[in-house]
């Protein structure tokens, strides 16, 4: 009897402690294209209460990675919030080829929806309908009988829609044609009053009516390369990539308010909107946990144009640090310090500019997919005269034209095997390609947890991917020019991202153990006392919770 009483007391104590540590609000922050090393590279210039709120008072996972390919924005946001990989949640890329439709599709495009808040063509026909798993935000809504409030905000539609899940109280993104925050008919037929009032402030015009100068004296930006670099893109009519940037003049030349997303004030604008949502929706004001997801996209857009070694990118992160400091101050005031939980991560990293590596005699290169596809088709005509064997080569995948193999099933099957082998051998011998995998190999062959093959398998969805997948060599990109950079690979510069936690239920500390991005949602599930998302295959981070 005594043991039973002691056990009941321990159980009640544990439940009481969990209830006390359960946050009133969870804030999920995704910083688009943020490599882990930026935390270290810019650390000396960060203020005391932005990124350092995590590093000084929260828990830092130093060895957090994406465990699949491709490392892109849509799959990244989906994986963070579902705790699953593209093989399960189905968001296999930002855009992919739909074999049934015979055309490319966007990860959040929904043709039955219409934009709400704008008349601009193509600005809001979106929803989460292609996402096959529930999200942590969905599970919070379900566990609370939909009393919990969930709001998602971002410059990009996919950065707002996928984290907010299927059941949110709103998902909002930026319309570069009007400078307003908009949504779609999946959520609302008319923008809520508070969103309309926010749009009436015309903040996009305000932020673009200024000059972008460096936050600090430019000679202090010693963590990056020279300001005017041959590896950086040039905006508008500028003849150099050097500071300052007259945003009002650039806007005239470039024509749209979309320029906002190419400046640090794109992040500031989104934070302004997130704070307005916090107040207008009364988030974190009762005993039912709410969820606010914020995706900062300007880091990605600037990173693509200027590369990871630019003054523009460092200045953007220093300004984002101040934006985070202001956001924390608002949360402390409105929700209460210690009453909310925040996590911060990224949807992917980024490669160095290949040309900059080539010039330093470091292995790198540019993969010209169109040229390789043309040569491959010509090669196959030698063996299959008059037949179009390749339907499409896109996103490091080959879609074989199945209609080319009809007639006698035995002969057609043999011909398909021959064609598959020919394609595989051709690609494997192509400069810049490291490994090639057929769909049969991916489905049937065992793989190591952290191997390249394992990453390809976890990113491969049978219904949405091609017949053959290939992986480029380290440092190689499918990229148009010699300025700027991109992401999408299996390598650590794309997979190694920050995973930071702070607030209610989170103890202070660090860990160098290997963790995957899919561990975030299960960790939150344990913290909130709700079930894991339906497709989740990650594990709770025990170093944080136990």
Report on this structure:
- It is a single chain.
- This protein has 546 residues and is α/β, with parallel strands linked by helices.
- It has 2 domains: 23-357 and 490-545, Alkaline Phosphatase, subunit A (3-Layer(aba) Sandwich), CATH 3.40.720.10; 368-431 and 433-472, Gyrase A, domain 2, CATH 3.30.1360.
- Helices cover 37% and strands 16% of the residues.
- The chain contains 21 helices and 22 strands.
- The strands form 6 sheets. The chain has a 10-stranded mixed sheet, with helices on both faces. Strands 15-16-18-17 form a 4-stranded antiparallel sheet, sandwiched between helices.
- Helix 4 (73-82) runs parallel beside helix 7, helix 11 (265-280) runs parallel beside helix 13 and helix 15 (369-381) packs across helix 16.
- The longest helix has 26 residues, at 311-336.
- Residues 1-19 have low confidence and may be disordered.
CATH superfamily of the largest domain: Alkaline Phosphatase, subunit A
CATH class of the largest domain: Alpha Beta
| Poorly predicted runs of 5 or more residues | 1-19
Indicate the proportion of strand residues. 15-25%
Oligomer: single chain
Q: What composes the largest sheet?
A: 10 strands, mixed
The overall number of domains is 2
Number of helices: 21
Compute the separation of the termini in Å.
28 Å
Q: Look up the CATH topology of the largest domain.
A: Alkaline Phosphatase, subunit A
Indicate the percent of residues in helices: 25-40%
Q: Structural class, please?
A: alpha/beta
Look at the structure and give the mean pLDDT: 93
Number of distinct beta strands: 22
Return the CATH architecture of the largest domain: 3-Layer(aba) Sandwich
| C-alpha geometry | globular
Strand order of the largest sheet: 6-9-8-7-12-1-13-20-2-21
Radius of gyration: 24 Å
